[in-house]
């Protein structure tokens, strides 16, 4: 996982019968924006 974070690209990790895919080590949301500068607009919708 540390290697995948340092690489900074989309990877596939196979271990113990699991497959984990994605780009690891992304930054969080700061001031309502993603690390690439786009606005973070996702909102959790609750069902009544």
What's the story with the biggest beta sheet? 2 strands, antiparallel
Would you list the SSEs in sequence order as H and E?
Answer: HEE
Note the beta-strand portion. Answer: 25-35%
* Major β-sheet strand ordering: 1-2
Broad shape: flat
Helix content: 10-25%
- How far apart are the termini? 39 Å
What is the residue-mean pLDDT, rounded to a whole number? 81
Helix count equals: 1
Provide an overview of this structure.
The protein is α+β, with helices and mostly antiparallel strands. The protein is about 10% helix and about 25% strand. The chain is built from one helix and two strands; from the N terminus they run αββ. Strands 1-2 form a two-stranded antiparallel ribbon. Strand 1 and strand 2 form a beta hairpin. The chain is flat and about 40 Å long.
């Amino acid at each position: 996982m540390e290697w995948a974070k340092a690489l900074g690209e989309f990877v596939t990790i196979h271990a113990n019968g699991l497959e984990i895919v994605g780009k690891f080590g992304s930054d969080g949301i700061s001031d309502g924006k993603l690390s690439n500068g786009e606005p973070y607009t996702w909102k959790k919708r609750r069902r009544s």
